[in-house]
């Protein structure tokens, strides 16, 4: 019941220069659990923002009254990566040695926020549900850890897709849960859910 809401929440998105350059924002109004109404949208061209500084933006909502006040900082992406299986970031013995040195006992309190990192190799899926009329699916895999989210490419018309990708996440909370979800790409429509698994970090 507010026309001037304050959320004061922070979200981290991993922006890679070869990906989509627009940040799309939507504002919704909830009447109850079932009814929602779109109050407006706005877009931010990430490539036009200065880097390594916090940008204060007042964004008018398109075709609707009101505006959003946001702080957006574009900074170099550290600790997060996507690579092919053949060039796995920890495949180099010297790199593994550097990592072991970084997280050895004597360096435990050098940076309290640097708990560690998680590397996930997403190889393939087997016997997925057919979501299309053709008896096939267009699956892709989404990995979420805390508020970090990365995803694979889509393998079209396949129930046994092979992605062979390596994902690296910084760990901010040892009690986080890695959520791996498989979706079926459905063009302009929201993707169809094909399955999910949750893996607590403490079980690894």
Automatic annotation (TrEMBL):
Got a GO cellular component term for this one? synaptic vesicle membrane
The taxonomic lineage of its organism, from the top, reads: Eukaryota, Metazoa, Chordata, Craniata, Vertebrata
Q: Which gene encodes it?
A: Mctp2
Name-wise, this protein is MCTP2 protein
Coiled coil, from the record: none
Tell me which InterPro entries the record gives.
C2_dom, C2_domain_sf
What UniProt keywords are attached to this protein's entry? Answer: Calcium, Membrane, Metal-binding, Repeat, Transmembrane, Transmembrane helix
Pfam families in alphabetical order? C2
Among its keywords, does the record have Plastid? Answer: no
Report the sequence similarity comment from the record: Belongs to the MCTP family.
């Amino acid at each position: 019941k507010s026309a001037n809401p304050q959320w004061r929440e922070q979200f981290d998105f991993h922006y890679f220069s070869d990906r989509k350059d627009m940040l799309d924002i939507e504002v919704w109004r909830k009447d109850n659990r079932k009814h929602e109404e779109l109050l407006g949208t706005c877009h931010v061209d990430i490539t036009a923002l200065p880097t390594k500084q916090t940008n204060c933006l007042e964004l008018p909502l398109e075709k609707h009254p009101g505006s959003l006040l946001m702080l957006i900082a574009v900074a170099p992406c550290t600790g997060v990566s996507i690579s092919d299986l053949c060039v796995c970031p920890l495949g180099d013995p010297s790199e593994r040695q550097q990592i072991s040195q970084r997280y050895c006992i004597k360096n435990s309190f050098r940076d309290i926020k640097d708990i560690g990192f998680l590397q996930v190799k997403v190889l393939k899926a087997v016997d997925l549900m057919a979501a299309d009329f053709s008896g096939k699916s267009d699956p892709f895999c989404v990995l979420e850890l805390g508020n970090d989210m990365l995803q694979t490419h889509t393998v079209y018309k396949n129930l046994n897709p092979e992605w062979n990708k390596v994902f690296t996440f910084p760990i901010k909370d040892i009690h986080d849960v890695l959520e791996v979800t498989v979706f079926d790409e459905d063009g302009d429509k929201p993707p169809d859910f094909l399955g999910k698994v949750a893996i607590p970090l403490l079980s690894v």
